UniProtKB/TrEMBL annotation:
Protein's name according to its UniProt entry: ABC transporter domain-containing protein
Organism: Compostibacter hankyongensis
Keyword field: ATP-binding, Nucleotide-binding, Transport
Gene3D superfamilies found in the cross-reference section: P-loop containing nucleotide triphosphate hydrolases
Entry keyword annotation includes 4Fe-4S: no
Pfam families with a match to the protein in the record: ABC_tran
Length: 255
């Protein structure tokens, strides 16, 4: 493979669990600096694909390169350049946010100023608060801060806004854009199409372990329309979420 602008290359990736094929020959590339979305229904194979690229799960066959390093030959090099969001159970519930950032920094062998990371995700006022006392949105923002500690070139976010209220989701979108603005490449899974449309430069739609479409959201929509698709009824200029946001405001809250 010789396309240097592709920071991730996945070729004919297969993952079987016993007789069941969860990932069925997936190939795609992610360009440096883009926000790339893996979309698909539950069980489509998105998390399995991500976890294989993250070196956290064994593949059955296929090839993966990250930053030019082969997953088979140099998983340690790959680990050094990626940031992965932990599930919330991964945080010591009794430690406060400053202590948790220091703990992660220690794991990565880096000296950091915890406050810089907390302020980046708008949690500066929670520095002495324990992780378990945070709201859902705050926990998600904190987990994004922890992915940044080893200054990764690529950040993987697996359903980062699931379960959040509309304001918290929008706050997180802005945070994800900000992180990309600092030069990181972002790979995100979601089943919120508005989120993918707003955030992603390109998306791969995954179904039953296969990629069934891959393009920019705009191009995919244009293709559908060019094929004669029309929405069954006139679309209003706003939706209920617009009403909700308009009425309740966009400012930061206890999200
Ligand atoms: P997604 O992230 O798209 O929801 P997953 O990658 O989590 O999908 O799962 C893909 C399929 O593989 C699902 O049918 C799931 O039940 C199955 N699967 C995931 N992990 C395992 C496992 N450890 N053992 C057996 N089957 C699994």
């Amino acid at each position: 493979m010789s396309a240097p602008q592709q920071i991730i290359e996945v070729k004919e990736l297969v993952k079987k669990y016993g007789d069941f094929t969860a990932v069925d020959g997936i190939s795609f590339g992610v360009r440096e600096g883009e926000i790339f979305g893996l979309l698909g229904p539950n069980g489509a194979g998105k998390s399995t694909t991500l976890e294989i690229i993250e070196t956290l799960r064994e593949k059955t066959s296929g090839e993966v390169w990250v930053g030019g390093f082969s997953l088979d030959e140099h998983p340690e090099q790959i680990k050094k350049m990626i940031g992965v969001q932990l599930q919330s159970s991964g945080y010591y519930p009794g430690l406060n946010l400053t202590e948790l950032i220091e703990l992660f920094a220690g794991l990565y062998n880096r000296k950091v100023k915890p406050m810089e990371y907390l302020e980046m995700v708008n949690l500066g006022d929670k520095a002495k608060v324990r992780y378990k006392a945070l709201s859902g949105g705050q926990q998600q923002r904190f987990s994004i801060a922890t992915t940044l500690i080893n200054q990764p070139r690529i950040i993987f976010l697996d359903e980062p806004t699931t379960g959040l209220d509309p304001q918290a989701r929008r706050n997180l979108w802005e945070l994800i854009r900000k992180v990309r603005g600092q030069g990181a490449t972002i790979v995100i899974t979601t089943h919120y199409m508005d989120e993918a449309e707003y955030l992603c430069d390109r998306v791969a739609i995954v179904d039953s372990g296969r990629i069934i479409a891959l393009n920019s959201p705009d191009a995919l929509i244009d293709e559908l329309v060019a094929g004669g698709f029309e929405r069954p009824r006139a679309v209003k200029k706003a939706n209920l979420e617009d009403v909700f946001i308009q009425l309740t405001g966009r400012e930061w809250r206890g999200d």
